[in-house]
Amino acid sequence: MDNNSRTVLVTGFGPFGEHTVNASWVAVQEMKKLGLGNNIDLHVYEVPVEYKKVELMVPKFLKQYQPRLVVHVGVSGMATTVTLEKCGRNHGYKGLDNSSFCPDSQCCIVGGPDCINSVIDMESVCKRVTASGLGVAVSVSKDAGRYLCDFTYYTSLYLSHGRSAFIHVPPLGKPYSGEELARALQAIIREMLELLDQAEEKIHCQQHIH
To answer: In CATH, which of 3.40.50.170, 3.40.630.20, 1.20.1560.10, 3.10.129.10 is domain 3-209?
Structure first.
């Protein structure tokens, strides 16, 4: 395997609205301390809550690191569990960002498909992490909310051919600490990598049969 195949990129978001401290970035920084194991080259970045910055940063990250997996983490004031998002949506972006901007087209990629699913089976990840008795509730969602989280996810899915994931976390202390969220992220991302490995072994085997 080349070195890039063990590179994982994880992003959190900066402050916005009432989220003066964004739980997603706190959780990502805490997870960086825990790491994903010796053989994983982990890079973390804070992404500003601005459409134009996302449009610049996501392609740059993918080109620079060519990661095996990109995981974006965002906060949701409505979330009470750590939520795995299955898909990103292209249309319906009307919410203004931190610089009071929203795309004229109200979409991520003009002409792109309406919805893109992650190659990772989120139900499977959810079941496995829940069964591991982590003590943090995990759920699955099909709607990442049509704001910067969803916009980032769709853009990332489009450019990475589905090799991206999005995880929503609740605000800090509602009910989990940054450290608890970090442990959950670590467990979730490890399961995602495990599933990617299995999927690729399967493809590899099928190629040898034919």
So the answer is: 3.40.630.20
